[in-house]
Automatic annotation (TrEMBL):
Secretion signal, residue range per the UniProt entry: 1-16
Protein name (database record): FAD dependent oxidoreductase domain-containing protein
One Gene Ontology molecular-function label: FAD binding
Required co-factors: FAD
Keywords for the protein's UniProt record, in alphabetical order: Cytoplasm, FAD, Flavoprotein, Oxidoreductase, Signal
GO biological process: D-amino acid catabolic process
InterPro entries attached to this UniProt entry: DAO, FAD-dep_OxRdtase
Similarity section: Belongs to the DAMOX/DASOX family.
Subcellular location(s) of the protein: Cytoplasm, Cytosol; Peroxisome matrix
Length: 341
């Protein structure tokens, strides 16, 4: 059986890795126009924190979203507990605070269900950082530094998959594959003519500040998240904005807000600034099998795109679900074939 995974961000690489874990002798090809540092996934801060608005098409009860979150949490923790060094997989435990002066946006029922600690900040804790913080939460979670984790996933599958660098214009170009996994993020806007896919532009600083061990969030999309070697300072959330250039006004705003929250960041060394377009999909992540007719042939495409600002958080769980979609579809076809003989 021949599989093609389109896309090599965290969703594409996690899919290929899960496919090979479930079907070790599978014939897997990855087709992608960008790899590694050129993907959106590579620059993500990588904190394991789902947004309350994250949803999946057809998931009316929220059960799928919950399963993806739990499966992802279990996967990342299992990697952490393995004998492999954190410098390889890029996953580490972090704790920190979320503060707000406007309304209590610091609660997160989805996350508090899976992490070991999630509680309100005490009166004393609300005074840790400068600002008039009225609400706050403290929690323990993980950071999956994508720069490291993408390399880790690549190392797991290299030598076991074929890789082609090319831009796909139509799934019909992939007629020789039995199943296609579409993990193209924002690219699905054009590849699937899906107008519900919209970028949410995010700009960040990556700085050297090894003394920062905790994460901090506050109003106006301000966040400080320590990764393996650098700390990510953010950010922006600009809907339907395609600008991949660093905007000096955004830079000034991010720097001001981050250093107000943690003044000692003024001593940090700036490594780089980065812009990424979060692949948001209005109506939720599209995770389903589509049969595309191509003459007498039928292309089986399993979509998995539109994770917005939470693709690192949900990658392992959503990719496990895609591979399960393949297994169930294939079992159905096999049963049909058996019933005819
Ligand atoms: C500033 C910022 C901070 C973030 N922080 C976090 C965070 O802390 N936690 C979190 O969970 N998430 C975070 N995210 C979100 C996360 O980065 C995304 O949800 C995730 O990267 C989406 O992964 P993906 O594999 O779908 O997309 P991508 O990484 O964009 O990968 C898509 C792949 O498809 C390929 N492709 C697209 N179209 C085609 C085509 N036509 N032909 C061939 N190949 C194609 C691309 O080349 C690429 O390889 C952040 C995002 C940004 C921008």
């Amino acid at each position: 059986m021949k599989f093609c995974v389109v896309g090599s961000g965290i969703i594409g690489l996690s899919t290929a890795s899960e496919l090979l874990a479930q079907y070790p002798s599978a014939d897997v090809t990855i087709v992608s126009d960008k790899f590694g540092e050129d993907t959106t996934s590579n620059g993500a801060a990588g904190i394991f924190r789902p947004g309350g608005g994250f949803s999946v098409v057809g998931d009316t009860t929220g059960a799928i979203r919950k399963t993806w979150l739990k499966d992802s949490w279990d996967y990342y923790n299992a990697v952490c507990a393995s004998s492999e060094a954190p410098s390889l997989h890029g996953i580490k435990s972090v704790s920190g605070y979320m503060f707000s002066s406007e309304s209590d946006l610091t609660k997160n029922d989805l996350l508090s269900d899976v992490v070991p600690t999630y509680r309100s900040a005490t009166e004393d804790e609300l005074k840790i950082c400068p600002g008039d913080w009225k609400y706050g939460s403290y929690f323990l979670t993980l950071v999956v530094d994508s720069q490291f984790h993408l390399k880790y996933l690549r190392a797991k599958i290299d030598g076991r998959v074929k890789i082609y660098q090319t831009k796909l214009n139509n799934f019909k170009e992939l007629g020789k594959y039995d199943y296609i996994f579409n993990c193209t993020g924002l690219g699905s806007k054009w590849l699937c003519a899906d107008d519900k896919v919209v970028p949410i532009r995010g700009q960040v600083y990556k700085v050297k500040a090894p003394w920062i061990k905790m994460f901090f969030y506050s109003n106006s999309d301000t966040y400080i998240i320590p990764g393996m070697n650098t700390v990510t300072l953010g950010g922006t959330r600009q809907f339907d904005n395609y600008n991949l250039q660093v905007d000096p006004h955004d830079s000034a705003g991010i720097w001001e807000r981050a250093t107000q929250l943690l003044p000692n960041l003024k001593r940090s060394d700036i490594v780089r600034e980065w812009v990424g377009l979060r692949p948001y999909r209005d109506g939720g992540v599209r995770s389903e099998l589509e049969i595309i007719k191509d003459g007498s042939k039928q292309l089986k495409v399993i979509h998995n795109y539109g994770h917005g600002g939470y693709g690192v958080t949900f990658a392992p769980g959503s990719c496990k679900y895609s591979v399960k979609t393949f297994t169930e579809s294939h079992r159905g076809i096999w049963k049909l074939w058996r019933s005819k003989i």
